[in-house]
Amino acid sequence: METIWLYQFRLIVIGDSTVGKSCLIRRFTEGRFAQVSDPTVGVDFFSRLVEIEPGKRIKLQIWDTAGQERFRSITRAYYRNSVGGLLLFDITNRRSFQNVHNWLEEAQSHVQPHSIVFLLVGHKCDLEAQRQVTQQEAEKLAGAYGMRYVETSARDAINVEKAFVDLTRDIFELVRSGDIKIQDGWEGVKSGFVPNTVHSSEEVTKGGRQCFC
Amino acid sequence: MSSVRSSLQKQQSLPVRPIIPLVARISDQNASGAPPMTVREKSRLDKFKQLLASPNTDLEELRKHSWSGIPREVRPITWRLLSGYLPANKERRELVLKRKREEYFGFIEQYYHSRTDEHYKDTYRQIHIDIPRTNPLIPLFQQPAVQEVFERILFIWAIRHPASGYVQGINDLVTPFFVLVGKLHQRTPFHVAALPLETQRNIEADSFWCMSKLLDGIQDNYTFAQPGIQNKVKALEELVSRIDEDVHNHFKKYEVEYLQFAFRWMNNLLMRELPLRCTIRLWDTYQAEAEGFSHFHLYVCAAFLIEWRKEILSMVDFQGLLMLLQNLPTIHWGNEEVGLLLAEAYRLKYMFADAPSHYKR
């Protein structure tokens, strides 16, 4: 299979500790739910291709960040080179919802002169009985900041695909309209590469021979 | 060296995060049912026993012998001596143990109730949610009694060290002491709650003090902005640029930053990259070195990175490199691999420690 992509987008996933950032990303990139996962330390990297329209592929590079305060000095370095972000809270944890505002401030103060297209994600929506944040109030908050809102569950694979693909589509439209421009020295968006040239590690590890011709 | 290296080169497997193996595998080749000790192993053990039985254990001598690995049977006491928790004077040991254990439980009595106070409840909350996620694949650490012990140890340490407080990663650092001091690797399968209460308390207090001694040397890893880690990652980059230009330039070419993969190596002392049995072997040497955890670890990280040079150089994009570096296939590593890693680290330290600038290209 060819891994030709139109654009590469870098995304960042943020939110309080234990809202399920790593589990959501793993569900999206590996297609499985990890019952247990140790706390993310610093930043982890993930990647996946998505098809936003038939034949139109976008490569996503995703930074999974540690939620704990002490790691901010490390994680904040990753905002600048991100074009998009998923801001997670846990619908069963009101406090993580209250912190959404702080996360946006944190992001905005470290992303200048660029900006990040954020999607607000209410995670763990399979735990309806323990819900502490209503869909309406989350939508209202998202609207106030000009974000979309989606509820997801990594455990039951609800809306995980949709969250990433919707965000990718939104960014794609902004790139297509010229509102987001590719710039030298900025990793947020990169243009796809010329067909017939192998650059990608997927090609190499899947038995393709590296060709420097 | 090159022949050693090539024999060590691991087959690249699918990128799977190294999973900490089951406790039952910690003791590896030393477990009961394993081949009997060789003559050399026997004589090493005798040497340790002799040192430990002396009225005043010669700590220099003990370090010298520990560097290349401590026999399993004497590891618990040797670790407690090397960490500075137990005194060299044999007669004083019981008294010191008694006093320190009482002191620890004094802290518990004095402070542990404050976990619900406004000032401390965030610290406690973070510890409380991290503990079930510590060593999640090892059943031992899912026992409620064990999780309670970890909560107490970490909370007490955190509030007694306000400059750093509790930082994720510190939870991992209790594990080797807890397993070792409690000789828990020899007691599987079992429930900690089934041990006599006094034994449980001793394991807890001793783990606390050993961990405290370790953290005393690396506290700046966990203070605001984590300067200890920032400095060590910079030092790692500097070192690798001198010892392996190919790897260094490869990272530059594909815009891989050392902080992107080595942050965790420093924050968790490679515990996330290696099976627990390897960490235990590694710590034999770290405790035998004068500044093992704070300084020698840097050389171990450099040696560890270069260990994968072939795999690194075969990756020709950012993504491939990051995925490789986050998921180095060490799952089958044992004492032999760690021994070679340490030997290489020692060589690097000898050649490059405080090296004058003429080593620079």
Give the low-confidence spans of chain A. Answer: 197-213
Give the strand content of chain B: under 5%
Q: Oligomerization state of this entry?
A: heterodimer
Instruction: Spell out the helices and strands of chain B N to C.
Output: HHHHHHHHHHHHHHHHH
What's the count of strands of chain B? 0
Shape by Cα distribution of chain B: globular
Class of secondary structure makeup of chain A = alpha/beta
CATH architecture of chain A: 3-Layer(aba) Sandwich
Q: Biggest sheet of chain B, open or closed, and with what strands and sense?
A: none
Number of domains of chain A: 1
Percent of residues of chain A in beta strands?
Answer: 15-25%
Number of helical regions of chain B: 17
Q: Largest inter-chain interface?
A: A-B, 29 and 38 residues
Poorly predicted runs of chain B: 1-33, 356-361
The biggest sheet of chain A, with number of strands, parallel, antiparallel or mixed sense and barrel status, is: 7 strands, mixed
Mean pLDDT of chain A: 89
Organism (chain A): Sphaeramia orbicularis
Main location (chain A): membrane
Subcellular location (chain A): Autolysosome membrane; Cell membrane; Cytoplasmic vesicle membrane
Family (chain A): Belongs to the small GTPase superfamily. Rab family.
Report what the structure shows.
The complex is a heterodimer of chains A (213) and B (361). Chain A has helices at 21-30, 72-75, 94-98, 100-111, 135-144, 160-176, 201-205, and strands at 7-15, 43-53, 56-65, 84-90, 117-123, 148-151, 189-191. Chain A has 213 residues and is an alpha/beta fold. Chain A has a single domain, classed as P-loop containing nucleotide triphosphate hydrolases (Rossmann fold, 3-Layer(aba) Sandwich). In chain A, strands 1, 2, 3, 4, 5, 6 and 7 form a 7-stranded mixed β-sheet that branches. The model of chain A is unreliable at 197-213 (pLDDT under 50). With 361 residues, chain B is mainly alpha-helical. Chain B has 2 domains: 54-217, no CATH class; 227-353, Cyclin A, domain 1 (Orthogonal Bundle). The longest helix of chain B has 22 residues, at 90-111. Mean pLDDT of chain B is 88; it is low at 1-33 and 356-361. Chain A binds chain B through residues 17-18, 35-45, 47, 61, 66, 68, 70-71, 73-74, 77, 187, 199-201, 204-205, 210, and chain B through 126, 129-130, 132-137, 165, 167-169, 171-172, 222, 224-226, 255, 259-260, 263-264, 267-268, 272, 314-323, 326.
